[in-house]
UniProtKB/TrEMBL annotation:
InterPro entries, alphabetized: Beta-barrel_RND_2 (IPR058792), BSH_CzcB-like (IPR058647), MdtA-like_C (IPR058627), RND_pump_MFP (IPR006143)
Membrane-traversing stretches: 26-45
Protein's UniProt keywords contain Membrane: yes
Gene3D superfamilies in alphabetical order: 2.40.30.170, 2.40.420.20, 2.40.50.100, Helix hairpin bin (1.10.287.470)
Classification via Pfam families: Beta-barrel_RND_2 (PF25954), BSH_CzcB (PF25973), RND-MFP_C (PF25967)
Domain CzcB-like barrel-sandwich hybrid: start-end pairs: 98-224
Extent of the signal sequence: none
Protein name: RND family efflux transporter MFP subunit
Domain Multidrug resistance protein MdtA-like C-terminal permuted SH3: start-end pairs: 318-369
SUPFAM superfamilies (UniProt xref): HlyD-like secretion proteins
Residues forming coiled coils: 137-195
Keywords recorded for this protein, A-Z: Coiled coil, Membrane, Transmembrane, Transmembrane helix
Chain ranges of the CusB-like beta-barrel domain: 240-309
Amino acid sequence: MTYQGGEMQGEQLVLEDRSPRARRRWLLIGGLVALIAAAVAWYVLRPKGEETPPATAASQAPAVTVIVPGAESVARIISATGTLAATREMPVGVAGEGGMVSRVLVEPGQWVRAGQVLATIDRSVQAQTAQSLAAQINVAKSDLTLAQAELERAQSLVDRGFISKADVQRRIATRDAARARLQVAQATLSEQRARNARLDIRAPAAGLILTRGVEPGQIVSSGSGMLFRMAKGGEMEMRAQLAEGDLQVVRVGSPAKVVPVGDTRAFPGSVWQVAPVIDPQTRQGIARIKLSYDPALRPGGFASATITAGGARQPELPQSALLSDEKGNYVYIVDAQNKVERRAVTLGTVADDRVAIASGLNGDERVVQSAGAFLNPGQTVRPQRAKPTATR
């Protein structure tokens, strides 16, 4: 390479070279030098107010989405198990003196009306007694008729002097005694007939026969115990076992759904009685759920129930906001200094996508919506409010 000469004019360098490749290289170098000089000039001459601020800890903090749940009226769903039973179970036994059962007229599962005969007891001896008492009444009526006639004759003769007034008084007493004997005979017959009627075992009220414990030929008495079990009106119920805390929020009239074991249907009902006492051994009480009759509701069977308790105002969170460890359930909230704080919570009703918070939150906190597992208590974050969505 041979240079023919060069001349410096200001900042321009003129080079002569017979090689085109060398000329392009020197032009590239000159462009880079000019670019560097322009950058240095801008840095020296720039206004002081345009300095780039250094990076801060806040700008480097991770961004998290937060929600303010508020508080809404949340219906508490309580799950329970228990047994089915008749709402009013009536044991039916012998009310009279008893004897040998001659006929049984009903079977379990049969509906009966009030006063219907369920079984009869042999009354051959009692019937003869009733006939004897009826005959005594006829004798007493005859005695009374005769005494009345004698009294009337004596009264017609006393004015003529044929009979004394003392005789008339005696005949009046005889007539009254005959009348009293008639009344006694009538009362005795009525008593015997009542006894005979009690030999019929009758339904005390309309309802459904649940069990039968007697057969024809069996000797029964007032000490024989229960011969039939009835459900008054066919009304059924579930006696749900509830924990002490759940029993506090259940009220009479709370709606419920009952599913018997072996059935997929849910039978609607409502709580009609809440136990006034707690079992000291199990720490549980009973809520009685009234149900309409259905053949699938068999007393003594096992069933599960869900009871909708009263609506308390509670915050609701998406399930993504909840975390748990060996210490229990918790959420992360962001305080006024944008620092993460752990808050223990107690869960309430759990829905498909949301969970009610029974305790631990007031509803005005900024709760981390998700990604809480990657945060640590005391960590600084950049909170961003989530877009409002429907809560239910």
